[in-house]
Amino acid sequence: MNMQELDEYLKKYNLRELFLKDYFLAKQNPRTYKEFTDNIDLNFVKENKIIIPELNLTPDSSMFLEEDIFNNEELNIHVIKHDRYTPVFNHKHSFFEILYIYSGHCIQNIMGDKITLNEGDLCILSPEAEHSVEVFDDSIVINILVRKSTFDSIFLEILDDENILSSFFTKILYTKNYNNYIIFRTNNSTTVRMSIKHIFIESLERRKYSNKMLNYVLLILFANLLRGEKNTVELPTELRKSNQNLSDILIYIQNNYKTVTLEELSNKFNFTVSHLSRLIKLHTGHNFRKMIQTIKLNKAIKLLVSTDLKICEINKRIGYENTTHFIRTFKKQYGVSPNQYRQNFVNKTN
Asked: How confident is the model at residue 125 (pLDDT cuts 50, 70, 90)?
């Protein structure tokens, strides 16, 4: 699929959208509404998973889980076009969602904040942020859905500079207090738009190495968002100083996880060791030792599935001095040894 074919694909109404548009128009008149609802093909509605809250045609839960969307596939990223004329309903996800306004505009209601997004705008929603989307015209909205674990194991290693995106994602992954969304007004940036197009095409075609390609193109998208000098960024509330300090601490830990100690952190950020320990526990739910272990094991998994390095080499790269201790810790966390984990991944991929 080339770029022109993608434009045509996105503009064309699919069967769900045609049904929803007819329903929307029928609602404008009591007589046509009754006639429409009396003749609804419920089998078609159920087969196409069409959501109409006012007719009690809704999911069993307002929470959409990863298994609902990714179907246990290996892909970390799933891309869809938002169905135009979908009735407004509040929902949330267990994964990240990126909304990009390809053309026209839409209205987002996020945790009570009503926001108008225009062509070229991009909004990143955190997991479990309750929201709704309104698109009742020919506007085109693209949804990029990303597993939460993907940021922990892949993207944070790249987004390790002290910038607004790394702060946003780090807080969500490691703390209980964070912003629900971040908005980039890109002034219809052509580089951002091209990245979105490449992501959509790659997700649609599902060719060999699609997972790697999607990861890389999403990183390019993030880089373009951060590089864009004309971009303006909006957060739901300004970060308080204490939260900003926490972001700096978390990013420092991410960058120095192999050797960092509580004493080193306390000296760098001018806290006592006991206060810093309580601060990390309060905001992340984990003590310092557990947090370092989580980061190391996530790095180990990435090396296990993406390289042929021996276990002893992986052990050194992630900062464990004792291979036996590393293997024991890994098995306690995941139920299998590092070698078994790698073999299971190879078998599943094949």
From this structure: very high
Q: Please state, in angstroms and as integers, the Cα–Cα distance from residue 236 to each residue in 179, 214, 268, following that order.
A: 7, 28, 29
Tell me what pLDDT residue 11 has: 96
DSSP string, 29-58: SHHHHHHHHHT--HHHHHHTT--BGGGTB-
Q: Give the mean model confidence (pLDDT) for residues 188-194.
A: 94
Q: Would you kindly state where each structural domain of the chain is located, as residue ranges?
A: 59-234, 241-349
Provide the phi-psi class of 70: left if phi over 0, else alpha when psi is between -120 and 50, else beta: alpha
In eight-state DSSP terms, residue 81 is: E
Write down the pTM of the prediction: 0.71
| Assigned CATH for 241-349 | 1.10.10.60
Structure token pair of residue 70: 């990714």
199 pLDDT higher than 80: yes
Q: Hey, what CATH topology would domain 59-234 get?
A: Jelly Rolls (2.60.120)
